[in-house]
Design goal:
membrane, transmembrane, mainly alpha, transmembrane helix
Length: 77
């Protein structure tokens, strides 16, 4: 009877320990996933910002080129 109780206690303790370990592993995995997601989101945001800046720069350069061309034409004329 006593041995049975001890076995039950040991099994329960082992199960709870396993559960805690599993919970820790799950938590770590979730944290890692969240970190990766955040990093990817930040990278995407940075890429979008860079793309917008590049487009703006290209637009400014095009305008400057047009103005220079017009000035050249006026000067040549």
């Amino acid at each position: 009877m006593v041995i049975g109780m001890v076995v039950v206690m040991v099994v329960l303790w082992a199960m709870t320990t396993m559960m805690v370990m599993e919970m820790k592993v799950v938590m770590v995995v979730l944290v890692v996933i969240v970190m990766v997601m955040v990093l990817l989101t930040v990278m995407v945001m940075e890429m979008v910002v860079v793309a917008v800046l590049v487009v703006m720069l290209v637009g400014i350069v095009m305008k400057v080129m047009v103005v220079v061309m017009v000035l050249l034409v006026i000067v040549v004329e």
